[in-house]
Amino acid sequence: MSIKIENISKNFGSFAALTDVDLNIESGELVALLGPSGSGKTSLLRIIAGLEQPDQGNIYFGEQNMTDVEAIKRQVGFVFQHYALFSHMSVAENISYGLRVKPRKERPSKKEIKDKVKELLELVKLDGLENRYPSQLSGGQRQRVALARALAVQPKVLLLDEPFGALDAKVRKDLRRWLRKLHDEFHITSVFVTHDQEEALDVSDRVVVMNDGQIKQIGTPDEVYENPNSPFVFDFLGNVNIFKGRVHNGIFQSSGDEIYHRDIAATVQNTKKDTFAYTRPHQFDIQTTEQGEGYLPVSIQYIHAVGPIVFIEAKREQGDLIEIELEKSKFIDLGITQGQVVFVKPKQIKVFTPEEFSI
Ligand code: ATP
């Protein structure tokens, strides 16, 4: 089921929580709403669910305008951060709740409900725990019960609000990967809210980056990470190095150092005033002896290896620190040590015009 969000605005008193939001979600997509606290993610999710009414705009599921349709009639499954399980009900009773409260005509038989619960317990890998109560489960298990409960009513759309936010890092990662696999099996159009960029980039088909009640960028994880359209998105999505300077005929000149980049021509040719060039830590070329133009001498301050990646902090001559990420094999080939002076050049930089800083 596709979702179309058309020109949605929502105010709380004089505060604009959402302003003119447009978004098309394709049938079967897994989309992450990503943004800092207060950016409007939950408000948008609640409007899709029908738990909140927009002041302006429309929501469509497929061709059907759902804007005035009650939440209960929208056929959405909702999973919240804090489980929201019924503590006095067993796992099986929680999962079957949505089926048991259906109007008599639509309600499945006791046998059908039992079979459905069994099937869902297997799906969320909780078989054998049907008689436990929420207090007897781990956080990850509770969240899987919440998901099974949401799936029991065969929703057309699955909405998840920080579903793994309360779990520790390892469980979080396992569960989100598992959610992705589950999604690939069932293709239920799913929207999940997170403020964790790693989570959004790791599992979604597309990421919707929000700030101040507006959508700042929509794209695949690769697009938004590698080609952010604003300083905000660049900064919010990962580590970044920022160089101050000017562009002259397509060449970025930073505090006396010259850094070339072919991309600059596409966006900015000349800047009269100082502006900023952005580079991700993995976007540097690094040499132990200077060969070619545009390399900056830096001294290695800190080296930290995690698995296949080596994180390096290096100091420029004028004092700024640069963060660099190198593949371990490359790091070993270069034989870099602490205190050494090496030469670095961004393979890619993105220059934003002063106007783009206000986006
Ligand atoms: P978080 O990650 O902290 O949950 P969010 O991006 O999901 O943030 P929302 O919960 O959508 O943000 O809130 C957006 C803004 O609207 C916030 O400033 C919040 O305080 C405000 N807001 C949300 N709901 C209400 C409400 N019922 N009454 C008043 N203000 C509200």
From TrEMBL:
Domain ABC transporter positions: 3-237
Annotated protein name in UniProt: Sulfate ABC transporter
Superkingdom of origin: Bacteria
Alphabetized Pfam families for the sequence: ABC_tran, TOBE_3
Keywords: ATP-binding, Cell membrane, Membrane, Nucleotide-binding, Sulfate transport, Translocase, Transport
PANTHER family (alphabetical): SPERMIDINE/PUTRESCINE IMPORT ATP-BINDING PROTEIN POTA, SPERMIDINE_PUTRESCINE IMPORT ATP-BINDING PROTEIN POTA
PROSITE patterns assigned to the protein according to its UniProt record, in alphabetical order: ABC_TRANSPORTER_1 (PS00211), ABC_TRANSPORTER_2 (PS50893)
MF GO annotations: ABC-type sulfate transporter activity; ATP binding; ATP hydrolysis activity
Gene3D superfamilies associated with the record: P-loop containing nucleotide triphosphate hydrolases
Entry annotated with the keyword Nucleotide-binding: yes
Lineage, broadest ranks: Bacteria, Bacillati, Bacillota, Bacilli, Bacillales
GO CC annotations, alphabetized: ATP-binding cassette (ABC) transporter complex
Keyword Cell membrane attached: yes
